Amino acid sequence: MDTTASVLDALAARLSDPGILDSSTLARALYSTDASIYRLVPSVVAVPRTRKELVELVRAALEVGLPITTRGAGTSCAGNAVGTGLIIDTSRHLNRIISIDEVSGTAEIEPGVIQSQLQAAVTPLGWRYGPDPSTANRCTVGGMIGNNACGPRALGYGRSADNIVELEVITGTGECLTLTQDAHGPTLDRLRQVVGESLGVIRTEFGTFTRQVSGYSMEHLLPEKGFDAAKFFAGTEGTLGVITRAVVKLVKDAPLKLTIALGYPTMADAADAMPLILPFSPTACEGMDRRLSDVVAERLGASAVPDLPDGDGWVFIELVGDDMDEMLTRAHGMVDVSGCTEGWVVTDPAQAARLWTIRTDAAGLASVALDEPAWAGWEDAAVPADRLGAYLRDFDALLERFGLHGLPYGHFGEGCVHCRIDVPLTRDDGTQVLHEFITEAGKLVASHGGSMSGEHGDGRARSELLPLMYSTGALNLFAAVKQIFDPNNLLNPGVLVDPEPLNHNVRPFLARNSPLTMSHPEFAKAVHSCTGVGKCRSDSTKVGSVMCPSYQASGDEKDSTRGRSRILQEMINGTLITGGWASPEVTEALELCLSCKGCRRDCPTGVDMAAFKSRVLFEKYRGRLRPTSHYAMGWLPRWGRLTTRLRIGVLMNFVLQTPGLQHIARWVAGVDQRRPMPRFRTGAAASHQHHELTGGTARRGRVAVWVDSFSDAFEGGQVVALLNLLVSLGFEPKVVSGDACCGLTWITTGQLDGARRQLRHALEVLAPIAEQQVPIIGLEPSCMAVWRSDAAELLPDEPRVAVVRDAITTLGELLDGLDDWIPPDLSGLTIVAQPHCHQTSVLGHAADKRVLERTGAKVIILGGCCGLAGNFGVERGHYETSVKVAEHDLLPAIHEAGQQAIILADGFSCRKQVKDLENRTALTLPELLIKYMG
Question: What does 85-116 look like in DSSP terms, one character per residue?
């Protein structure tokens, strides 16, 4: 097919505003894959802003013969949202909720509306949108309709198809159709005729069970179903038309919920019980086994696994209703007949929440818990629920036969099983193994009367398998339907009808022998750990997440963790992005990364973009002159030590605070001119000052106080506050003497050799203290986090790193372990606490939260990032993004809490951001506590 520049020129000439097109290498790389294993580089990406632009765009692309693939959030796991022609992203602008009808219980929406956005809009009105996939906080409803997405509560509320009233679509002929039940028109009448000629095939092969999502759902077009073309369109995966508008059905959510947990000897035994459980009308019925609970314990700690019923396989069930007595009767009746080893009816909401949380945690970890990477591909097959137990036993045997591994779990009430599998895709025979295994798995599912897909669609991963479950007559029917709607095969070609082989265009396989893979195999493996599920696109800071502040500020895919991972994957591949570490596309994608490490914790696969950025900067500038900001801010601890040793703080402050001089200083250092400069201490470093401490008895023993470079060189009272607090608590604190810089600023600027030197020097100072089992109390969260993350990665063969890591303790952790400590009474006060990103993501903030709550104050703990993020918000070109990030969580919380609220921030950069943008002083935890202690 011709996708040359002339075709793109012809496309642009047909548009009122060609500015919605982007054929840059950066854009094409960003959209070259979705949440699947597939890679197809598009010719151009478009982000239409209105329905009119969308219609014009689709018609123009059809006129010039350019294939079209529509995508929402790009969370498709089967390669449904990638293609070589035009990619249309509906998520950026086509995301309006047009209207909500409270009486009929319907909502009219644009295709890019996020599921959770719709849910939030209708919940206060007493309604809910039924389907709730795990990606609900970022997936679009248009994408859900395209794949016929379901989620765990589809058992009670139905699939996407079951919740559609009306669709407006553009077909492959450019025609705009309104699809409803019993709709008419030339195109739909042709469809009605094709259906009429195949009634026997449709009635016998389609709609055999609820999770039969594979292929086209022809059953909705039967006369007895009212020829519902809107419901039929769900699951057509963009192969028949582009959705421009949808009217979806809402459902009433029962006010009461009840959880039942059932234990069985094995997960397959739990699956065998489905025919006994389903008559009790559960809303959700989820299964997992001990393999996954062991993974949760290993990765998140034993405390993350709640008590579970006796057994090695479990089912968690939700009942809903408006009469608790009736629900309890139903629940106990279910337990009695379920055949379980042990069953619980859980009436405590907190206990129920913990049970559902382990199921969620387990699902998130299933793809990263194996020794080798586990991939999508055989992601969501489904069988009738009464065949599930037998299928699971056969599936385990199939994995063993191929020497592969996976951790199955899923929506047992509807027979849908999720499993990512460690197919060796980076081996030379990797795609052959993939094809052989998936084909055998497809035969297995078909033998149990199942569907290749149970909720994610077939895409490029399973379309080839449709002949295993459908007759020639059914496949010919698909082709006939495709011919009606898309006669030139321009809508998502290669999917469902005339599919491409499932082992073509496999992303990790294509990059296996690239020069960068050969020279940097561990880095190549790490960047491919991003599976594309797009959690970084969700706005989850209200529940404590940090990731991804730059995306929250810009809404641009390139500024998400996933987008950056895609660019790095293309850099590794080397055929589209060809400049290696110094590629302009890589530079642009990483430019607004705050190195907050939020993704390290919040990303389901643990992507650490901060570490990736450091590595890229290291390789890019290896043996080259660096930007001045790398020397000014990357060496900031060095300049701080020099200033305090020479006692020239007064002079430095004069230069940095005097108009004209400070302008020159900012320009030389690469600092934005709108940023106030920090003030140095005017005397000796904090670690070398004599501190007058209040009296106390050292009944609790010695502690070492490690004064980081920021606390040491810049103004602030946190050091003396910490020392006085420790004395008052009965400790004998001693400030660590000697330079023990962790190298943080070298790390964030990619000067990794320098960081290693700093760390080795720090080990000489801190390791002897740690070896004496003396706790080392730190002040700056980002510096302490280095010892629990970067240090081991930079010095993997240095055993003393682990010794220091185990000795490093935050003040919150120390206080949380003192059961006899009575905190000051702060009742009546409001504390707005901004944890440092590295504390949230690496150290954890739970201990500090408990300490603050013990004071009796009203505590508001913020998610998200302050926006300064070390050197990021100071550097030239980052100011606007830094402020936008602050405006997401920090500044609104400060404004809402009012002038009397206490602002708490242990991080140097967090406190500076508050001072710079609000002209208010934030306290550290030791300053807060010592201020109010009697």
Answer: SEEEE-TTT---EEEEETTTTEEEE-TT-BHH
Q: Three-class SS string for 29-60?
A: HHCCCCCCCECCCCCEEECCCCHHHHHHHHHH
Distance, in Å, from the CA atom of 146 to the CA atom of 364, rounded to the nearest integer, reads 24
pTM of the model: 0.94
Strands 68-71 vs 86-89: parallel, antiparallel or unpaired: parallel
| Interval 221-248: pLDDT, tens | 999 999 999 999 999 999 999 999 999 9
Q: Which of helix, strand or coil describes residue 780? A: coil
Cα dihedral across residues 905, 907, 913, 916: positive or negative: positive
For residue 439, how many C-alpha atoms fall within 13 Å in the half-sphere facing its CB? 11
Closest listed residue to residue 802, CA positions, set 766, 838, 840: 766
- d(CA 258, CA 352) in angstroms, rounded, equals 8
Please calculate the CA angle 70-73-75 and round it to the nearest 5 degrees: 100
Token pair in block for residue 208 = 């055999």
Burial of 666 (0-12, 13-18, 19+ CB in 10 A): buried
3-class secondary structure, 731: strand
Q: Are strands 701-706 and 97-101 parallel, antiparallel or unpaired?
A: unpaired
Count of Cβ atoms closer than 10 Å to residue 772 Cβ: 10
Residue 267 has pLDDT above 50, yes or no: yes
- Closest to 209 in 3D by CA, of 454, 520, 476, 496: 454
Beta bridge partners of 735: 705
3-class DSSP state of 321: strand
Lowest average pLDDT, out of 13-22, 40-49, 159-168, 528-537, goes to: 528-537
- Tell me how far apart the alpha carbons of residues 907 and 785 are, in angstroms, rounded to a whole number: 11
Tokens of 369: 């818990």
Half-sphere exposure in the Cβ direction for 885 (13 Å, CA):
30
Retrieve residue 890's tokens: 């920090």
Give CA 818 to chain center in angstroms. 36
Handedness of CA 363, 367, 369, 374 (dihedral sign): positive
Which residue, among 235, 157, 132, has the nearest Cα to 456 in the 3D structure? Answer: 235
The torsion angles phi and psi of 808, rounded to 5 degrees, stand at -65, 130
Q: What is the strand order of the sheet 21-22 is part of?
A: 21-22, 44-46, 86-89, 68-71
pLDDT at site 691: 67
Residue 172, by phi and psi: left (phi above 0), alpha (psi -120 to 50) or beta?
alpha
Cα angle 753, 755, 756; round to 5: 65
Omega before residue 548 within 30° of 0, cis: yes
Nearest-Å Rg of the Cα atoms of the chain is 29
**102-106 long-range contacts, Cβ below 8 Å, gap at least 24?**
102/126, 102/127, 105/249, 105/250, 105/251, 105/252, 106/165, 106/247, 106/248, 106/249, 106/250
Write out pLDDT tens, residues 577-606: 999 999 999 999 999 999 999 999 999 888
String of b and e for 50-84 (b: at least 16 CB within 10 Å)? ebebbbbbbbbbbebebbbbbbbbbbbbbbbbbbb
The candidate with the shortest Cα–Cα distance to 47, out of 1, 102, 95, 93, is: 93
Contact 410, 385 (CB under 8 A): no
Inter-residue contact 529 to 541 (CB < 8 Å): no
In the block, tokens 């996954």 appear at: 292
**Contact, 831 vs 902, CB < 8 A?**
yes
